[in-house]
Specification:
CATH architecture of one domain: 3-Layer(aba) Sandwich
Number of helices: 33
Shape: elongated
Largest sheet: 7 strands, parallel
Strand content: 5-15%
Helix content: 55-70%
Radius of gyration: 31 Å
Distance between the termini: 88 Å
Length: about 700
């Protein structure tokens, strides 16, 4: 058989996937003529297709020694170099091919993919555009163009590119997957799920598609289904770090924290662990696994210094270092917004009522909604138009209905693209936009980044700096925010506390101690904080108090079984019997407020104080003992107690905190006097004067706006 016939037969076998037989024939041809360019080149191409990249590079390089100016061989060698992560050599190869064959669409496209991987997004976009100028129906280039437009933060254009690619290639799984990823960014989770389902139908065993599908289900709060999606990914690819991390997030939402921690640990053990450290940190807090929390806390600073995007919310539970909190928040913002979109805002030229908007993903059964509703009702409508924006799903709760009704206008922005929401706010000529999320789940930074209002402030939802350049002010008070260096925003210090209270809440009939599961007598220390706020040093103080006060008990919020077991073991380690820790079950709000009256003293936590929880206790007439912390989140107790007229319950050291708690437990008359003082303050204290709070806050808004339009 002559060499041409050998090569033709080898090519036929190659194309039919019979690679072993094809390789044998290519080698036979090369044995007969070592300088057979076609055989050597095609052998290299076939090896590349079978994943043997180093061998492929060697063969194609040998082919180019025979025919140095063959564009196809230059292209294929550059493709192999790209896969081998040798981008500069790949670029040189593509450029050489384009010198020999100018405007070649495939070479332009492939060169652009390397530029994109190097972060040269504008150059990559120009390359895709050149490829499409030469070949307008090049679906792969359109798909890649959409991808780099995503990288450039231009989601609407990215969607258009994917749509065009799919019109040309209706079974293009990668384009469906990429289109879904844009829709995830735009919070259009149902539309994203549709795209991922289409992609999955075309490529049922693609781990990336299945993982993205799980993310869409998480966005829809269908956590059980999301978990099943991640499990299907891991059945295909057990060490897929990103899916393990996402699986941990779904388990956290399902309050299966022990399983979540195990999933995060698997992610951390896998290559490229998808930033599971922060998830593991939160799971350990939720489990009251203080040994693991201490290990994580010791590593937190180095992880943040390396730029890992750890949730700033998680850090608040681990550390009271405000400068570290700012560094952490800044790292998250930088990674999320490598380039900011152009601002939409401009100051209104006409004056009239100030147009004030509050934006939140917690419009429903949530503490933030409960805290602000009376304030919204109390705003002066002669001076302000008050708009609400809710980006979360309607939960049908009475809290949502009341809050929505309190606004002059309410925008339901659930699953609406961030730019569209921003443009709507700009169209309404909002003067002051108040973010009620900060770095909390469901944040609205994607909307705020477009700067739809000339004044943008953050308040209430997150106790710290956002470090976001598009947020001008943080609304606080002099107690929670004494150090301007800890904040990227300007501090607006309200004259009393920064914390609003709904004083219309009714306190129901108090249950009996027996009904609440409490002993008939004995001192009741209480802390209804979520268990992730319970830290080992403070809990150790509580156990010493129980040992020092005979017959006393500690009344805690009901928690998961693992966390409960860990707390009981920690108590036992200090000689406290398990029956002295009592866990309160769920109750209606009016009953929950009422049962505070069965306790004697509320004990605050650190580094993250009780916030709404402490306010509940004070409103119900239960004195709160706090320890002033070193960060915003740890100074809220001091702010509340100052505004309610009980500064004597603020301590500055752990020793003073423990000593005062013990003194109050041993002096019923002194504690009774504090309760009477608190009861009297309900009618006069600034903390419970919502109208006064509203006027102070409105004055702050007017000053912010005046500064912006000078």
């Amino acid at each position: 058989m002559n060499r041409n016939a050998l090569n033709e037969q080898a090519v036929a076998l190659h194309r039919s996937g019979q690679w072993a037989q094809a390789e044998s024939l290519y080698l036979q041809a090369l044995a007969e003529n070592p300088r057979d360019f076609s055989a050597r080149h095609l052998l290299g191409v076939m090896k590349a297709q079978s994943g043997r990249m180093d061998e492929a590079l060697a063969d194609i390089s040998l082919a180019l020694e025979i025919e140095p100016d063959d564009p196809e061989a230059l292209l294929n060698r550059a493709n192999v170099l790209k896969v081998l992560n040798r981008p500069q050599e790949a670029l040189a190869g593509f450029e050489r091919a384009l010198t020999l064959k100018p405007g070649w669409p495939q070479a332009e496209n492939n060169r652009a993919t390397v530029l994109q991987a190097l972060g040269r997004f504008e150059d990559a976009l120009a390359g895709y555009d050149r490829a499409l100028a030469a070949a307008p129906d090049y679906a792969e280039a359109l798909n890649n163009r959409g991808s780099v437009l995503q990288d450039l933060g231009r989601p609407a254009e990215a969607l258009a590119a994917y749509d065009q690619a799919l019109r040309l290639a209706p079974k293009f799984a990668a384009a469906f997957n990429n289109r879904g990823s844009v829709l995830l960014e735009l919070k259009r989770f149902a539309d994203a799920l549709f795209c991922f389902d289409r992609a999955r139908a075309l490529r049922p065993d693609d781990a990336e598609i299945l993982n993205n599908r799980g993310n869409a289900l998480q966005g829809l709060m269908r956590y059980d289904e999301a978990l099943a999606a991640y499990d299907s990914v891991l059945a295909l690819k057990p060490d897929y770090a990103e899916a393990l991390n996402n699986r941990g997030e779904a388990l956290q939402q399902l309050k299966r924290h022990e399983e979540a921690l195990a999933s995060y640990d698997r992610a951390l053990a896998a290559p490229g662990h998808a930033h599971a450290f922060g998830g593991a940190a939160m799971a350990a807090l939720n489990l009251c696994d203080w040994k693991r929390s201490a290990q994580i806390g010791a590593q937190m600073k180095s992880h943040i210094a390396e730029g890992e995007p750890i949730s700033p919310w998680v850090l608040l539970g681990h550390s009271g270092d405000e400068m570290l909190q700012r560094q952490c928040a800044a790292a998250v913002i930088r990674r999320r917004f490598p380039a900011l979109p152009p601002p939409l805002a401009f100051a209104r030229t006409h004056r009239g009522k100030i147009r004030l908007a509050y934006i939140s993903s917690d419009v429903g059964h949530h503490p933030v909604a409960t805290q602000i509703v009376q304030l919204i009702e109390s705003h002066d409508r002669a001076r302000f138009d008050v708009i609400g924006v809710g980006t979360n799903q309607d939960d049908g709760s009475p809290q949502r209905r009341r809050l929505v009704a309190a606004y002059d206008r309410f925008i339901d922005a659930h699953q609406v693209a961030p730019l569209s929401v921003a443009e709507q706010l700009r169209g309404l000529e909002v003067d002051v936009l108040v973010d009620l999320n900060g770095h909390t789940r469901g944040d609205n930074f994607d909307i705020l980044a477009h700067r739809p209002a000339p004044v943008q402030a953050t308040w209430l939802g997150y106790a710290g700096t956002t470090a976001a350049p598009f947020i001008d002010y943080v609304i606080a008070d002099r107690i929670v925010a004494p150090d301007a260096q800890a904040f990227s925003e300007k501090i607006v210090a309200l004259p009393d506390s920064y914390f609003p209270v709904d004083t219309t809440r009714t306190i129901g009939k108090s249950p009996t101690r027996a009904q609440a599961g409490l002993p008939p007598d004995g001192f009741v220390f209480c802390s209804f904080n979520n268990n992730w706020k319970l830290t080992e040093p403070v809990f150790a103080i509580w156990m010493r108090l129980l040992n020092s006060v005979p017959g006393s008990v500690l009344w805690l919020k009901q928690t998961g079984e693992t966390a409960k077991a860990n707390l009981l073991q920690a108590a036992a380690d200090q000689g406290v019997a398990p029956h002295r820790l009592i866990f309160a079950g769920p109750a209606a709000l009016d009953v929950h407020l009422a049962r505070h009256q069965l306790a004697d003293l509320f004990l605050d936590t650190l580094p993250y104080n009780a916030h709404a929880t402490a306010c509940d206790a004070l409103w119900a007439g239960l004195p709160v003992l706090t320890l002033r912390g070193t960060a915003f989140a740890g100074r809220v107790g001091a702010s509340l107690l100052t505004a309610v007229g009980l500064p004597e319950l603020i301590t500055e050291t752990q020793e003073d905190y423990e000593a005062l708690a013990l003194a109050l437990a041993q002096d019923r008359a002194r504690l009774s006097a504090l309760r009477e003082k608190l009861a009297a303050s309900r009618a006069t204290a600034p903390l419970f004067d919502t109208v006064r709070f509203a006027r102070n806050l409105e004055a702050a808004y007017a000053q912010m706006l005046a500064a912006a339009v000078k």
